[in-house]
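ESCALATION

Customer reports they have been waiting on this structure for their group meeting. Please prioritize. Original submission:
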Amino acid sequence: MSKRDEPPYFDKVADADIFFFKYYDLDKNEMRYLGHEIVKQNAVCKDFIPICRKLAKFPSDEPLVLYEEIRPTMIEPLDIEWSLKKAELGCGDIIVCEKAYSEEKRKTLANERVTSWYDFVRNKVTITFKDYANPKEEGFPLVLSKKTFYDRVGSLVGQEINFPGNRLRFYAHSRDQNCPRSKPLKRGENGETTLQTMISSYYDKATEILYYEKLDITVEDMEKLKQLTVLWQNYDGTFGRTISVALPAESTAGDMMEEISKKVELKGTKEVRMFFEFRSKIDKVIDPSECIRSYSDSDYQTLIAEEVPEDARTGEPGREMAMVHYESSMGMASTHGTPFLMFVREGETFGELKKRVRERLNIAEKLFKTWRFAVNVNHRLQKVDDGMLRCYFFIYLFIFFNLMGCKVGLLVYMCV
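Update from on-call: job pushed to the front of the queue and completed.
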């Protein structure tokens, strides 16, 4: 080496080349630079082994495995019997060594060999894991490879929270609402789903968030069941929580309602009913005897559950009506918001109905006085007085009030 103290100045040695050496610690999962050495050009690859032992301060009989780092994305194992010429090694090349562990021991390590470590470095990402039941809590970070499989992610998270990893189900993060998405991430057949797939739709270079849910059974067994997401609706029409239900595909809607009743607090009739919502209107009220095999989570249709109100179980003659928020502007009408069911008693006046609607939606009396009733006949609104009796032959009924120049209110229609 040159007498100069400042690298990288080296004296040229005839018929010899300089090589740089690294050591990958399989146990600590870290790379360490060992140093450099001048090696004769007529040497063979196994001559690197004593050099690595000396630089790493290993015993003289420590078995090692050698690799050439061609570039960070290309790491090739070296045949120790080959000459440097046959291995195409020359001045400035990088040799990486690791301990020669058995295959059984390698399987217990974070990375089985140095090639896996380089792949990890290229694909590593920091994920913050939060409890799905308590999404506001801070959570904890883990540095993982985007190629990590679903089951391995579950295992590593399970070690952090002291819970069986095969019973952890994951949810993606909604950046718009800053909360977990309602639908769980699929493990996939044989657990082939990777972390890249789990975060790809919502990838952020800074950090990622995933939510874990603790299950009573394994994720594999859970995905064999019919899984549905239900929105729980409060009495006043506001949404409560999102409920995940998993049952055999042959189960009935009644079985599903019973399962939902175990996950919510029922105060009144202690009965649950469900309906499908489509474009802010009730598309179908579900019969408890129906089979749930045909049900599915959809971006266009939402499954909503609620407790049956006490006024619907009084035994009085009447029928259920569905109410939907309605807006009219420039002669165009549209529905929005959350629909709900309302029991209308036989012979009930519109004034009485209007009073019960106000009580259910908890609308201020001053604001509610601006509301008017009208019936939609042949797509035309006709005013209705409070004293009029509700007529069953009216298919559509509009309740609306004036707000900022627009007609906004509730569209009420019969459930048939």
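Sent to customer with the following note: The longest strand covers residues 332-345.
Escalation resolved.
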